[in-house]
Amino acid sequence: MTKMAFESLGEKLQNVFKKLRGKGKLNEADVKEAMREVRLALLEADVNFRVVKEFIAGVTEKAVGQEILESLHPGQQVIKIVHEELIALMGDTQSQLTFAPKPPTVYMMVGLQGAGKTTSSGKLAGILRKQGKRPLLVACDVYRPAAIKQLQVVGKTYDIPVFEMGDKESPVVIAEKSLAHAAENNHDLVLIDTAGRLHIDDALMDELGEIRAKVRPQEILLVVDAMTGQDAVNVAKTFDEKLGLDGIIVTKLDSDTRGGAVLSVKKVTGKPVKYVGMGEKLDDMEPFHPDRMASRILGMGDVLSLIDKAQAAFDEKEAAALEKKFRENSLDLEDFLTQMQQIKKMGNIKDILGMMPGMNQAALADAQVDEKAMAHMEAIIQSMTPAERRDPSVLNGSRKRRIAAGSGRTIQEVNRLLKQFEEMRKMLKGFTGGGMKKKKGLFGKMGNLPFFG
User: Fold this and answer.
1) Helix 49-63 and helix 28-44: axis angle, to 10°?
2) Is 0.85 surpassed by the pTM of this model?
């Protein structure tokens, strides 16, 4: 089961704020008591203790002002202050990659062994290629067994070419020669996958310093593992002191429910988090938006990221056609199948639900989202004829037996799917009418997905 970043922290903070909202009027003692609980929650999430101390002091100073405590909704005002301070802590605005005025732009990917550097290099190259760039991956880890092979596999996965010279040549020479290769082959981006170690040592830093001197990277990007908590922050600080970092990529945020590294690293190093890895797929590496992350932590949802995912996954014409059918209450099983396939493109369903405002994160954490059930439903619908999908009322006993056999499911599962579909149509019937034509925003962009009902 996929964990959500800041699962535990989010739950605790939301409980604190629930108490604040329930009190109506607040006094200074109420705020300070709430801040004690917030402090504990942040420390348990593995946020750097100096960062926590400064954060609590900043929030308390603003929250105990006369203007706040005597306002109409003081609890909401305190939550607003915490939200703003969280955003400031993580970097105010999204920090984007920069590009060299004259190609190729070179990014040096650095970090300790096991942080996910090679995979992140491939994902970043894949993201940038979607933006119209022509990336080249460079294999400069000649020490770790099968490191070059791993980069080639990653490159093949994302359809990115890999430059390598085996494991006998010096990484400095490989990096230097990759630039000539990039120029000859019309690559405007070069991502150098450097070697890592189990810990920072002089030999590693000397080699990285030599590579930096030869290739003059536009940006040096440090890849850190969220699961190492405060160690990730310490590693970032050391790499920055020795090399000079331009940005940080935090991986495995889906595996760590605490996520303290993301909250601490900008404040401690002064360097922004540029991307976060939330899973194994290419789409699971996302640009880091401090405001969106703060909203997710506080249970306010992340509608903008949800829309980004929907727009990337949905075909505009299909979405428009689905919306028209939705209004006319004429959805059939063909449409149902299309919606399921498009939802799957958006990524992990639990993560998507976690982005929705007002979603109970604690309940969601315990929910069992059965991704296989969707695959079974797809198999059942695909075993029907086009005529059956358009008009399920024709499905008699013998047709259902044929569909069950063709999909490898049971007749009971076929009946359950048909019942769910009918219930969904009845539910949608209540939403049709003039009001739906004015409906805009998230559901308009997402084709009014029944799965989010």
Assistant:
1) 160
2) no
